[in-house]
Design goal:
The chain is of the alpha+beta class. It has 6 domains: about 120 residues, Rossmann fold; about 130 residues, Topoisomerase I, domain 2, CATH 1.10.460.10; about 130 residues, Topoisomerase I, domain 3 (Distorted Sandwich), CATH 2.70.20.10; about 120 residues, Topoisomerase I, domain 4, CATH 1.10.290; about 60 residues, no CATH class; about 45 residues, no CATH class. About 35% of the residues lie in helices and about 25% in strands. α3 packs across α5, α5 runs antiparallel to α16 and α6 packs across α14.
């Protein structure tokens, strides 16, 4: 029997570690957090030093019972959870629940799941770091206080189901402010003069150049403001003779980038691979915890993926130098190269994200990974290896070309990679452009001259990569929070993705304006960053966690109570008047409601009830035009009548577009309610009737029980409870008594589905 118990968070991690340990060790998983604040109440005693009321969630009870049984028999218990604050807190909660004597508890940490790292960790155990635990508790409790108290305020003033949080609200503010910049943007015209030249000695060699100076002074973007100014320049240049005024040749070196931190990995995976921050972290977790590499069992392929550090272990540095020299040649090996992190946050692990073994090349592991795992692993491997390679050397050339008898000078630029260095492993967008070997005073021939109109572009919406970078620059959030924050603001309807960019919804605009006006601290960048610094000080033992909470909560709670009384729903849900309907002469408004943004024809003071229509995807309160609003207000459309004389209409409801006949609604997800014809509507209504008829397998006179066909096969219902029909029973053969018995023993309320293990 095993003498020692090792507890980790995930079964995959447990499986990988098990193969490195003898039979004296039993490795078990806690399946994540085993205690948390309750979902049904605040769970924090704000009147008595913010004591948290932790509970074991239902899904963890069986796991905890099992761990308690095993722990009683173990001589020593090793907590091997992740080395960040979250992992430290899981270990602490386990220690509290297992109620084990302190002398039996050992805490071990490691950056990678390899045999060497695990055995080294076992040789150097420590106690649970209470400062790290307190930092995690402070974050969890503060986030609970903000979310649990501010979210109901939003339900009353805006719409039910909304949420607010420290980091997510700041992220939404960034997106909203960028969207407002885009909406307010006014394009500005400018022109460029572009030329195509050739070498008279070899006319097949052509190269491009741009007008760069007038009277020897560099031109700016807006020097040529309009077509008239551009035309004057091209008229002066058409018949001019051209010669090389100067040639500028330089060798430029391009240094490799540091290995990945959590933030830079999320950014680069988003840019290069199109992965969301959440996808990246899920895949990285899989690579860290272990992947089956053939018969050898699971192998941890990368180091811990939540880190702010760009340091690399000396063992990896020496292995990388040897690998690079033997694989690519000595000129490609830079020797050990260190990096300094720019982040002031560095609170998590102490090493960058890298492969656990440089010899596990992407080609070697590819057969064992799925396509997404492979792409991410290849990116991590390339970046880490490239960081230890020599600089790329690039020859750059600039050619100035003057037009005789005019004040105008053109500039051509080119570059050629002289030595690829690290680019051999980690290619970047380094475009080569070869220029002819001309020298000063050489004549060149003008082949083509164009004046091109341009307009300035509005700032781009944030991509996930850009948002992570900005949050990090402001000092907001930590490696473990970027991905869940971005996922949450999308899930809550504050953000939608348009062309892989994050666009705030009208709901985000309304909620952000409410928070900025009435709770400015919650969405203040500096204030939020200072809170993060406070968590860091708690982790370092320089600050008491209860004091930090007390510095924030009383004033926040008082402010919230005041706003409950003084802020009205009408003042929050601002209304924009779009114009006047030319037919009815009634005003048309765009506004936010409990079920989302909509347009309204007429006002509540009119004798006739106002008409409403929801905005469609891609439309917003701030930009919708009168013409677009009037099209929306065409609904509900009367299409005609069926054979029985029942009116048929088409419209859009909370659950999408539909046609209505009498009191029955039929979904028309694949048809447009603005253009659907009566004939098509009748087809869909007939199909729905057939589906309904086929749904009923059997009914019983005088009883509400029915035998029905469902999405997952035949089932029984009595209107209140549903029950699956056993596989060996023919649905049509069931008697009323048999149905009653099945419902009595296995019936469940509709919508109650068993949740699988995570």
């Amino acid at each position: 029997m095993a003498k020692n118990l090792v507890i980790v968070e995930s079964p995959t991690k447990a499986k990988t570690i098990s193969k490195f340990l003898s039979k004296e060790y039993q490795v078990e998983s806690s399946f994540g957090h085993v205690r948390d604040l309750p979902k049904s109440k605040l769970g924090v005693d704000v009147d008595h030093n913010y004591v948290p009321d932790y509970v074991v969630p239902p899904r963890a009870k069986k796991v905890v019972t099992n761990l308690k049984t095993i722990a009683k028999k173990a001589d020593l218990i090793y907590f091997a959870t992740d080395e960040d604050r979250e992992g430290e807190a899981i270990s602490w909660h386990l220690a509290e629940l297992l109620d084990t004597p302190e002398e039996k508890i050992k805490r071990i940490v490691f950056h990678e799941i390899t045999e060497t790292a695990i055995h080294e960790a076992l040789k150097n155990p420590r106690g649970i770091d209470q400062h790290l635990v307190d930092a995690q508790q402070a974050r969890r409790i503060l986030d609970r206080l903000v979310g649990y108290e501010l979210s109901p305020f939003l339900w009353k003033k805006v719409a039910r189901g909304l949420s607010a949080g420290r980091v997510q609200s700041v992220a939404v503010r960034l997106l909203v402010e960028r969207e407002r910049e885009i909406q307010a943007f006014k394009p500005k015209e400018f022109w460029t003069i572009d030329a195509l030249f050739s070498d008279p000695g070899d006319k097949s060699i052509e190269f491009e150049a741009k007008l760069s100076a007038i009277d020897g002074k560099p031109i700016s973007k807006f020097t040529i403001k309009n077509e008239r100014a551009a035309q004057e320049i091209t008229d002066a240049l058409k018949d001019a003779a051209y010669a090389v005024e100067a040639v500028d040749r330089k060798e430029m070196t391009k240094s490799p980038l540091p290995p990945f931190t959590t933030s830079t990995l999320q950014q680069e995976a988003n840019r290069r691979l199109g992965f969301s921050a959440k996808q990246t972290m899920v895949l990285a977790q899989q690579l860290y915890e272990g992947v089956e590499l053939g018969s050898g069992g699971p192998v941890g392929l990368i180091t811990y993926m939540r880190t702010d550090s760009v340091n690399l272990a000396s063992k990896f540095l020496s292995e990388a130098a040897t690998y690079i020299a033997s694989t690519f040649g000595q000129p490609y090996s830079s020797g050990p190269r260190g990096y300094r992190g720019k982040s002031k946050l560095a609170q998590e692990a102490h090493e960058a994200i890298r492969p656990t073994s440089v010899t596990n090349s992407p080609a070697h592991v590819k057969p064992y990974l799925d396509s997404r795992q492979f792409k991410l692993y290849q990116l991590i491997w390339q970046r880490a290896v490239a960081s230890q390679m020599t600089e790329a050397k690039i020859d750059t050339t600039g050619i100035d070309i003057s037009a005789a008898q005019t004040p105008y000078t053109f500039r051509a630029t080119g570059s050629v990679i002289k030595f690829d260095g690290y680019l051999k492993v980690y290619p970047t967008a380094t475009k080569e452009n070869v220029l002819p070997p001309v020298k000063a005073h050489d004549a060149v021939e003008l082949k083509k001259l164009d004046s091109n109109q341009h307009f300035t572009q509005p700032p781009a919406r944030y991509s996930e990569a850009a948002l992570v970078k900005t949050l990090e620059e402001y000092g907001i959030g930590r490696p473990s929070t970027y991905a869940p924050t971005i996922a949450t603001i999308q899930e809550r309807g504050y953000v939608e993705k348009v062309d892989r960019r994050l666009k705030p919804t009208d709901l985000a605009m309304v909620v952000n304006d409410l928070l900025v006006k009435h709770f400015p601290e919650i969405v203040d960048f500096e204030f939020t960053a200072n809170l993060e610094d406070g968590f860091d000080k708690i982790a370092e033992g320089k600050k008491e966690w209860q004091k930090m909470l007390n510095d924030f909560y009383p004033s926040f709670h008082k402010q919230l109570e005041e706003k409950e009384e003084t802020v009205s729903r009408d003042s929050v849900l601002s209304v924009r008047e779009i114009g006047t309907d030319p037919k009815t002469h009634k005003p048309v408004f765009a506004r936010m409601g409990r079920f989302g943004p909509f347009v309204q024809l007429g006002s509540k003071d009119d004798v006739e009830k106002p008409k409403f229509a929801s905005l469609q995807k891609g439309q917003s309160i701030a930009t919708i035009t009168l013409q677009e609003a009037l099209i929306l207000l065409q609904l509900p459309r009367t299409l005609g009548a069926d054979a029985e004389g029942n009116e048929i209409t088409a419209s859009v409801g909370r659950f999408g577009p539909y046609v209505k006949v009498g009191k029955k609604y039929v979904s028309i997800k694949n048809d447009d309610p603005y253009t659907i014809t009566l004939e098509r509507a009748l087809e869909l209504i007939a199909e729905a009737k057939d589906t309904q008829a086929n749904k009923e397998i059997k009914t019983f006179a005088g009883s509400p029980i029915k035998v029905l066909n469902g999405r997952y096969g035949p089932y029984l219902t009595n209107g209140e409870l549903n029950a699956k029909i056993p596989k060996d029973v023919k649905p049509e053969s069931l008697t009323l008594q048999e149905c009653e018995e099945i419902i009595k023993t296995t019936g469940k309320k509709p919508g109650m589905r068993r949740r699988g293990k995570k």
